[in-house]
From TrEMBL:
Binding site for ATP: 39-44, 145
Gene name, Swiss-Prot/TrEMBL: aroB
Record pathway: Metabolic intermediate biosynthesis; chorismate biosynthesis; chorismate from D-erythrose 4-phosphate and phosphoenolpyruvate: step 5/7; Metabolic intermediate biosynthesis; chorismate biosynthesis; chorismate from D-erythrose 4-phosphate and phosphoenolpyruvate: step 2/7
Species of provenance: Endosaccharibacter trunci
Annotated protein name in UniProt: Multifunctional fusion protein
Biological role stated in the UniProt entry: Catalyzes the specific phosphorylation of the 3-hydroxyl group of shikimic acid using ATP as a cosubstrate. Catalyzes the conversion of 3-deoxy-D-arabino-heptulosonate 7-phosphate (DAHP) to dehydroquinate (DHQ).
Binding-site list for NAD(+): 304-308, 328-329, 341, 350
Residues bound to Mg(2+): 43
């Protein structure tokens, strides 16, 4: 059974998917929209850029005056700014609806949310960022600018910078202007366009709502531009742990602040110990002490532990707050950040208290993977393998061909691995958000996890066995159990075990480092949240890419697999 990997759908407020060449560079041929304050040089640069690229050039202000038959100043005087902006958006929509062009917009155009959405969907935007002194110099004597007639130009421009720059920062690219000539600025814009690789966007479509998983390099520094379109208010609380904070927190908060988002941060201890009732209560108390509102967004910056904990707090505080996942481990990027499962651990087992609380966005910055130790990369890689084993033979074949590239730090292969795994999970979650289909829905994502959670519980969640490491062992055990039940060919079990071994993952019970009692492991499984009518439900396989769920597995068969000799698997 091979599943077709999903693709995103276009629609507000998300832009169209951008095509890529085999090298990963953008082949984006959409229009180019220049934004910035008066005096930034949008028209002058735009004309030269259009000539350089062989595209038509249009100035939005000129087109507005032509359509209205009066000047911009007269339009402001007669109708006011609000009505002017509505007409401006209509003109820009018309201009961007035809062949690709270079368009220079008025200084206030990008302030309008509807215009920003329009540009985001149909064009590439470039902010010509210009310092105050240069703006003052360039606008001196421009009496036709209505906004400059109300006071001292420097004071007016300074106020405009403070108010408008956070919105301009949502542009796709930023080019700094200097006083070294318009040709040099034009060249910098062309270079930025040539080098720009937009993030990849994958839609998770759910009944009545949707969100995007955005993957790419450098997303933390652009977090404000990427998240501003979906935030309910420009305020966020970032939850992270003390390991991730010194590595990535400042970059994220700077990226958010660039678009005027006010940020508070809360740091928790690293590791599974934070996913407890005590940890939940402490984080909820600290969040409430900040005076958060129901429209304040909680942003989880970290691995699966931070995402699960922050997500559960977001689901609970004030009876629900918006939530964004910014995963910093490979495992979190490909698995736990997508799908809306949140929760904490209890003495009885892992993730037994929690809620389904879908994020409003996921930002998976592949640059952060370079800071991970190889053990963390391997743990995340196990979840990518799992996706292929569940329902996509082509994905599993890709893993066998590219494992060393992914684990060796090849950025392009890592990005593709994240995209493929998220695409698979997005489809499964979209079909069965709350794991309500008993046989062929989201429950399939638990392949290997009944074993894995029991192993983690027996090891005491002390970090000696990472979740992804437990999943790797659990995958082999699931294939062994399926083979014992005469469901799966023995060669498939060997193939999976061999691949995990060659990738350097833990794949057998002996890799846990100490003897494990099968009866104790089975006792942990009986506390699993996947129990149905008092019986364990296992995800089994008929082969690679052919997973299904079954409640008809005897304790005797499970114990036989747990007590079996891993060495009996011949790994060539």
């Amino acid at each position: 059974m091979s599943r077709t990997l999903p693709t995103g759908e276009n629609g507000r407020p998300f832009p169209a998917t951008t095509p890529f060449s085999s090298s990963g560079q953008s082949k984006d041929q959409r229009s180019i929209v220049l934004v910035g304050l008066m005096g930034a040089g949008k028209t002058t640069v735009g004309r030269r850029l259009a000539a350089r690229l062989g595209m038509a050039f249009h100035d939005a202000d000129v087109e507005i005056e032509r359509a209205a038959g009066i000047t911009i100043a007269e339009l402001f005087e007669r109708y006011g700014e609000a009505e002017f902006r509505r007409g401006e958006q209509s003109v820009i929509r018309r201009l961007l609806g035809g062949e690709p062009i270079v368009l220079a917009t008025g200084g206030g155009a990008f302030m309008d949310a509807g215009t920003r959405d329009l540009v985001r969907q149909t064009a590439r935007s470039v902010w010509l960022r210009c310092p105050l002194d240069l703006l003052v110099k360039r606008t001196a004597g421009r009496s036709h600018r209505p906004l400059l007639k109300t006071g001292q130009p420097r004071e007016i421009l300074s106020a405009l910078i403070e108010r408008r720059h956070p919105f301009y920062a949502e542009a796709d690219m930023i080019v700094d202007c200097t006083d070294d000539g318009v040709e040099r600025t034009t060249e910098r814009v062309a270079e930025a366009l040539d080098a720009h690789v937009p993030p990849r966007r994958l839609e998770v479509a759910l009944p009545g709502r949707r969100y995007e998983v955005i993957t790419g390099a450098g997303l933390l520094g652009r977090a404000g531009a990427l998240l501003a379109p979906v935030l309910l208010q420009k305020r966020a609380v970032v939850v992270t742990d003390s390991t991730v904070a010194p590595l990535h927190l400042q970059t994220l908060t700077d990226g958010l602040a660039a678009t005027g988002i006010t940020v508070d941060s809360l740091v928790v201890p690293p590791g599974e110990s934070s996913k407890s009732l005590a940890g939940f209560g402490d984080l909820a108390d600290r969040m409430l002490a900040l005076g958060v509102e129901r429209r304040t967004t909680v942003i989880a910056l970290g691995g699966g532990v931070v995402g699960d904990l922050a997500g559960f707090v977001a689901a609970s505080v004030l009876r629900g707050m918006p939530f964004v996942q910014v995963p910093t481990t490979l495992l979190a990027q490909v698995d736990s950040s997508v799908g809306g499962k949140t929760g904490i651990n209890m003495k009885a087992g892992k993730n037994l208290v929690g809620a389904f609380h879908q994020p409003i966005a996921v930002l998976a910055d592949t640059d952060v993977l370079s800071t991970l130790p190889i053990r963390e990369l391997r743990a995340g890689y196990a979840e990518i393998v799992k996706a292929g084993l569940i329902g996509d033979v082509a994905l599993y074949d890709w893993c066998e061909s590219h494992a060393q590239d992914v684990l060796g730090g090849d950025a392009a292969c890592q990005a593709e691995a994240v995209r493929l795994a998220c695409a698979f999970k997005a489809r499964v979650v979209g079909d069965d958000e709350r794991e309500e289909k008993p046989n062929d829905g989201r429950a399939l994502l638990n392949l290997g996890h009944t074993f894995a959670h029991a192993l983690e519980a027996e090891m005491g969640f002390d970090g000696s066995l990472l979740h992804g490491e437990a999943v790797g062992i659990g995958l082999v055990l699931a294939f062994r159990l399926s083979h014992r039940l005469n469901l799966c060919p023995g060669q498939d079990t060997v193939r999976v075990a061999r691949h995990l071994q060659r990738a350097g993952l833990k794949w057998r019970l002996a890799d846990c480092g100490r003897p494990l009692d099968p009866e104790r492991l089975l006792a942990h499984m009986r506390k699993d949240k996947k129990m149905r009518d008092g019986r364990l439900s296992f995800v089994l396989v008929r082969g690679i890419g052919e997973a299904f769920t079954s409640p008809d597995v005897s304790d005797a068969d499970v114990l036989a697999v747990l007590a079996g000799d891993d060495a009996a698997l011949t790994i060539p």
